[in-house]
C-alpha cells in the first residue's frame, strides 16, 4: 500500500513538472493551447446540448419506469441521466483528447521533442514521421482506446443504477479506468518517436499503474473544468513526455 501511494504521488509530481516546464516556456503553452481551443468548443457544445435533452434521453432509455410511482421513477431516471452524462464525459474527454492530439500533431510533437531534447538528454534513435503518418497512427490508436472506453462504460452505466454504490463507488472506478486510457493517449508521442506501438505503450504503463494513475487522474479531473484543458493539455503533454521517458529508461524508483 505504501508503494502504491508513493508511486501515485510520483505521478502527481510528474504532472507538476509538466506544468513547470510549460509555464517556464510560454511559447510551449501557447502552441499547445491552439488545437485544444478548437476541440474545447466542440466538447462544451456537445455537453450543453446533452444537458438540455438529458431528461428526455433518460426517459427514452427507461421506458419500463413509465408506470412506476413518481418518486421511484424520478430516482431511476436521475440515475439514468447521471449515467448518460458520465458516459459522455468519459468517452467525450478521450475523444476530445484524441482529436486534439491528431489535429495538433505537429504542435504536440514540437512540445514532446523540445522537452526530451532540451531537458531529458534527447532521443538519439528518434524516428521522423510525416504528419500524415502520425495522424494515421493517432486515429488508429484513438479508435481502439475509445472503443475500450465504450465497452467499459456499458457495465459502469448499468452499475450506476445500484443504490448508493452506483453514485459513489462506480464514479471512482470510472475515473480510474478513463484516466488510465487518457494516460495512454498522452504518452503516445514519446513512444511513437522510438517506433514503439500501442501494445508496448500499454505494457510499459501497466507495469507502473499507480504512477500512471497519479499522473492521469488529476489531468482527467482538471479537463472536466470548462476551458481548463487549454492550459492542462500542454502541461499534460510535457508531463506525459517526462513520464514516458523515465519509464522507458527505468528511471522511476
Automatic annotation (TrEMBL):
One matching Pfam family: EI24
Cited InterPro entries: CysZ-like (IPR050480), CysZ/EI24 (IPR059112)
Membrane topology classification: Multi-pass membrane protein
Predominant localisation class: membrane
PANTHER family attached to this UniProt entry: SULFATE TRANSPORTER CYSZ
Name of the protein described by the UniProt record: CysZ protein
Top-rank taxon, per record: Bacteria
Bilayer-spanning residue ranges: 28-54, 74-103, 142-162, 168-189, 210-233
Key words of the record: Amino-acid biosynthesis, Cell inner membrane, Cell membrane, Membrane, Sulfate transport, Transmembrane, Transmembrane helix, Transport
Organism: Saccharothrix longispora
Compartment(s) of residence: Membrane
Amino acid at each position: 500500500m505504501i508503494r502504491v501511494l508513493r508511486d501515485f504521488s510520483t505521478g502527481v509530481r510528474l504532472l507538476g513538472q509538466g506544468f513547470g516546464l510549460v509555464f517556464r516556456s510560454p511559447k510551449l503553452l501557447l502552441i499547445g493551447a491552439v488545437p485544444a481551443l478548437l476541440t474545447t468548443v466542440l466538447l462544451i457544445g456537445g455537453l450543453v446540448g446533452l444537458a438540455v435533452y438529458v431528461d428526455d434521453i433518460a426517459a427514452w432509455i427507461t421506458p419500463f419506469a413509465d408506470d412506476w410511482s413518481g418518486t421511484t421513477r424520478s430516482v431511476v431516471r436521475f440515475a439514468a441521466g447521471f449515467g448518460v452524462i458520465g458516459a459522455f464525459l468519459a468517452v467525450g474527454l478521450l475523444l476530445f483528447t484524441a482529436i486534439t492530439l491528431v489535429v495538433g500533431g505537429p504542435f504536440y510533437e514540437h512540445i514532446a521533442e523540445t522537452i526530451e531534447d532540451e531537458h531529458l538528454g534527447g532521443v538519439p534513435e528518434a524516428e521522423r514521421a510525416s504528419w500524415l503518418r502520425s495522424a494515421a497512427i493517432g486515429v488508429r490508436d484513438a479508435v481502439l482506446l475509445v472503443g475500450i472506453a465504450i465497452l467499459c462504460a456499458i457495465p459502469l452505466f448499468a452499475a450506476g443504477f445500484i443504490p448508493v454504490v452506483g453514485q459513489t463507488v462506480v464514479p471512482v472506478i470510472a475515473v480510474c479506468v478513463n484516466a488510465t486510457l487518457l494516460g495512454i493517449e498522452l504518452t503516445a508521442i514519446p513512444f511513437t518517436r522510438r517506433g514503439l506501438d500501442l501494445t508496448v505503450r500499454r505494457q510499459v504503463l501497466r507495469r507502473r499503474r499507480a504512477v500512471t494513475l497519479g499522473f492521469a487522474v488529476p489531468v482527467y479531473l482538471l479537463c472536466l473544468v470548462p476551458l481548463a484543458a487549454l492550459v492542462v493539455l500542454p502541461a499534460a503533454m510535457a508531463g506525459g513526455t517526462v513520464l514516458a521517458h523515465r519509464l522507458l529508461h527505468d528511471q522511476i524508483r
